[in-house]
Design a protein that fits this description.
The chain is an alpha+beta fold. Helix content is about 15%, strand content about 45%. The chain has a 9-stranded antiparallel beta sheet with strand order 6-2-3-4-18-17-16-10-14. The protein has a 5-stranded antiparallel beta sheet with strand order 5-1-7-8-9, with helices on one face. Strands 13-12-11-15 form a 4-stranded antiparallel beta sheet. Helix 1 runs antiparallel to helix 2, helix 1 packs antiparallel against helix 4 and helix 3 runs antiparallel to helix 4.
């Protein structure tokens, strides 16, 4: 059995919207302690690692462990009808249907099918990071938006007390400096000067989507290694992304 209730659908909707940036369908692992999802995008360039513990819900009931695969986009269509209303999810294991009940000025219950759950276990990447930066999510988002005016890729460098983002396009170039202690860059630890290049079609969209869920993000990377983005959540859980670098040939 699995059923949950959230008094205000907005936060849960924002989380699912951020996940849907990478995956259209997701297999959620449900236990008595909460729900989690770890999945890679179809091109296997990026990964999302999500967890929401039972304490984050207004009501949470789960007996045992089970997997539930859903079309996240279809569920979002329903949640967007909820506004700030209460939403209940109930998994009918006999029919394989997920019941979505929205309670507000009136009560409506939708039924949607569950999908075949994935058997693939996506492991957590084991990476040694030489740079750890804490930034405001809005500050990082705005910097990436500036870069997107020039190029489809961004090179991120860290040395000393500064992070530099730069890019070159056919007509223009851009150089953005974020200094430690500034409004955008809250803290910075650099074990070793590092740099890596990433696709903005992924990085910018991830940050844009996750910005509605978090004001602060911890960014970790090393030279030509995947970047890790940990968006600090107000609820009891996590929302973390990994993105592979674009290896440049000198």
């Amino acid at each position: 059995m699995f059923s949950v209730r959230v008094a205000d659908a907005r936060a849960f909707r924002d989380i699912l919207s951020a996940i849907s940036t990478l995956v259209d369908e997701g297999t959620f692992y449900i236990t008595e302690e909460g729900i989690r999802l770890r999945a890679m995008d179809p091109s296997r360039v990026a990964m999302v690692d999500f967890a929401m513990n039972k304490s984050a819900f207004d009501e949470y009931v789960s007996s045992g462990e089970l997997k539930m695969c859903i079309d996240i986009g279809e569920l979002l269509k329903l949640l967007r009808r909820a506004g700030r209303e209460s939403v209940e999810l109930f998994l009918d294991e006999e029919t394989g249907q997920l019941k979505v009940t929205i309670r507000g000025k009136y009560t409506r219950t939708f039924s949607m099918p569950t999908l075949e759950a994935s058997e693939e276990e996506v492991p957590t990447p084991r990476i040694t990071f030489n740079v750890k930066a804490t930034l405001t999510t809005d500050g990082l988002h705005q910097a990436l938006e500036d870069v997107s005016l020039v190029s489809e890729h961004v090179r991120i460098e860290a040395e000393g007390d500064r992070i530099v983002m730069n890019a070159k396009g056919e007509l223009m170039g851009v150089n953005i400096e974020l200094d430690k202690g500034s409004d955008a860059l809250i803290s910075l630890e650099v074990k070793e000067p590092s740099r890596a290049t990433f696709s903005l079609s992924y990085l910018s969209e991830i940050v844009k989507a996750a910005a509605s869920t978090s004001d602060v993000v911890t960014m970790e990377f090393s030279t030509d290694m995947p970047i890790r983005l940990d968006f600090k959540q107000q609820y009891d859980g996590k929302l973390i992304y990994y993105l592979a670098p674009r290896i440049e040939v000198e």
